[in-house]
Sequence to fold (126 residues):
Amino acid sequence: QVQLVESGGGLVQAGGSLRVSCAASGLTFSSYTMGWFRQAPGKEREFVSAIRWSGGITYYADSVKGRFTISRDNAKNTVDLQMNGLKAEDTAVYYCAAALFMWDNRRHTTPPYKYWGQGTQVTVSS
Fold:
């Protein structure tokens, strides 16, 4: 049974930093592109960042580029999202997701990601 479990969310002031993590189990982690998405109240789920299954290749939404950094540890089956310079508009539930051997122009969309975590709340106060 595949499980993705996010952790590390919380409340932070604008301009602050937060690191969210995702622990994966039940899948061959090193074969999956891992993505982070977020969903704010009343809005659609949107792409934040993705990291290829190997090679450390990353991709970011324009809204977070230069502020967020995605990383993974294939030995520990974890993927992290370091968020710096947080803004009120970053407030959302953050989800990690897994897509098998996917790295193409769909990487910012939800359909290729087969497995999803339950999400962790990130709240940025202004």
Remarks:
- The two ends are 40 Å apart (CA to CA).
- The mean pLDDT is 97.
- The chain is about 0% helix and 50% strand.
